[in-house]
Amino acid sequence: MRTDTIRAAAVQIAPDLTGRAGTIERVLNAIAEAAGKGAEFIVFPETFVPYYPYFSFVLPPVQQGPAHLELYEQAVVVPSNETRAVADMARRHGVVVVLGVNERDNGSLFNTQLIFDADGTLALKRRKITPTYHERMVWGQGDGAGLKVVETRVGRVGALACWEHYNPLARYALMCQHEEIHAAHFPGSLVGPIFGEQIEVTMRHHALEAGCFVVNATGWLTEDQIQSLHPDPRLQSAMRDGCMTCIISPEGRHLADPITSGEGILIADLDMRLITKRKRMMDSVGHYARPELLHLVHDTRPAEARVVMPPAPNPEPFANVMEEETPNV
Description:
This protein has one domain (5-281): Carbon-nitrogen hydrolase (Nitrilase/N-carbamoyl-D-aminoacid amidohydrolase, 4-Layer Sandwich), CATH 3.60.110. It is 29% helix and 21% strand. The protein has ten helices and eleven strands. It has helices spanning 20-36, 55-58, 65-74, 81-93, 168-175, 193-210, 223-229, 233-236, 273-281, 318-322, and strands spanning 5-12, 41-43, 96-105, 108-116, 122-127, 150-152, 155-161, 181-186, 213-218, 246-248, 264-271. The protein is globular.
């Protein structure tokens, strides 16, 4: 039984909607602030760098072109100066960081989660397997290779983004790998109060079912930012509320009062003994499972647009194959 305690932080702050440089600066400052409060594990909101594509929720497709192209320009390449800056900050403070980014891979964008270990190495880069509704106009799809739990200084960490938590098999793939801390994030400032309520239910349920801690971060938009995204007050209302930055124990309990509005950094201590306490009663991938009746088939192969086949063996020259010995006369 693990007896250590990990201090976790979930960050709810606003991005810089003018570009990735400003948002990266906010990320670095938040890491330093959280680490100064003793945090060893820090989670940021979904696609926080440079910003979540709120335009795709309030603009019809025919009007999205300029904003979408600007997101291409501001998106993050992995690796890049931006990822190295975050890695350096993680190493400097000895913290594990989970950061959501818009990743650019040549002509496509992806909703990507990056897990930096406390020594600054990139432990995992994974892409959201299915963008939700309006997001499909913006991002491509991830693959099963990213459904992976990684060993870090704070323990075994898994991660999913937003409505991936409504995919029970995606969650089960991580549960089968015995995640101890689950990093989750949502955009925040979206849909309205009901979104925050749904997030809370989902986070508490995963903690209970997986027998792990859940650290969830949602984003935040200021009133000026909301007004800059669309002039119509009716559509502005679609970008308010919907926040639920929270830290949940394996028993499904909040370890600190969640942040549902404004900016802040939520801090809580994770008593790792609670994992065994929960799983003693219900280990959904162990003694409570029935794999001979129900089991998951998980394709971990990366999706490739081009698969190079090995060359065929060189046949012997045609003449040598067909040549017959001339009989003596």
